[in-house]
Amino acid sequence: EAAVSMTQLDKLHSLQAHRSMLANYMNAELGKIPGLITPTAKPDCDHTYYRYALRIDPTIVPVGASTIVDALNAEGLDWYAGYKPLNLFPVYQQQLAFGEKGCPFKCPWYEGNPDYSLDGMPNVVHHMKYSLSTENVRPPLLIEDMKLMVEGFNRVFENMAELFDYERANR
After folding, report:
1. What is the Rg, in whole angstroms, of the alpha carbon atoms belonging to the chain?
2. C-alpha 10, offset from chain centre
3. pLDDT in tens, 13-67
4. Measured at the alpha carbon of residue 47, what is the angle toward residues 125 and 32, in degrees to the nearest 5?
5. How far is the C-alpha of 140 from the C-alpha of 127, rounded, in Å?
6. Sign of the torsion angle spanned by Cα atoms 49, 53, 54, 55
7. Which of 20, 28, 89, 114 is the most buried (most CB within 10 A)?
8. pLDDT value at position 29?
9. CA distance 131 to 55
10. How far is the C-alpha of 82 from the C-alpha of 127, rounded, in Å?
11. CA 147, 164, 167, 70: dihedral to nearest 10 degrees?
12. At what angle do helices 143-158 and 160-170 cross, to 10 degrees?
């Protein structure tokens, strides 16, 4: 297994460079669509683009990510709306991680009362509704594949009025 891992690590830089090239193309093209916010990296940092995630500006785009994803997927693309934040996973909701005493959430040594609901997390709720992502900005895909994806986005965003009517009728 170590030999296989070492071989894969040798490929890491070229695979990541290819992924970044595809993502940079997507950022340049999708960044032209009003209301679509492409990913960024801090200066002197590299983005891995494990998932290529976009955000929607609801002051410009009148529908949520799930409606856009329905339309993108109808175009033959593979996108996902929102995400499941960690605080909604069973370990937090049931507050039981280690042993029967509920540690670390309800240990006799802990006097807090954690709240893992979404009530106090408006930013999380916002991003659940207005973010979308795909894993299909990666090798072995090519710029030609990204061009097809951009064309699909353009078709979807050119039909925003129909999407708005769809969302009102179905959500």
Report:
1. 20
2. 28
3. 999 999 999 999 999 999 999 999 999 989 999 899 999 999 999 999 999 999 9
4. 70
5. 29
6. negative
7. 20
8. 98
9. 4
10. 7
11. -10
12. 70
The DSSP result for the chain, as a single string, is: -HHHHHHHHHHHHHHHHHHHHHHHHHHHHHTTSTTEE-----TT-----SSEEEEE-TTT--S-HHHHHHHHHHTT---EES---GGGSHHHHTT--BTTTTBTTS-TT-------SSTT-HHHHHHHHSEEEES-SSTT--HHHHHHHHHHHHHHHHTHHHHHHHHHHH-
Average pLDDT of the chain, as a whole number: 92
Whole-model pTM?
0.86
Q: Encode pLDDT of 2-18 as tens digits.
A: 778 888 888 899 999 99
Rounded to an integer, what distance in angstroms lies between the CA atom of residue 167 and that of residue 151?
22
Contact predicate 139/19, CB 8 Å:
yes
φ, ψ dihedrals at 52, nearest 5°: -90, 110
Residue 105, token pair as written in the block:
């959430």
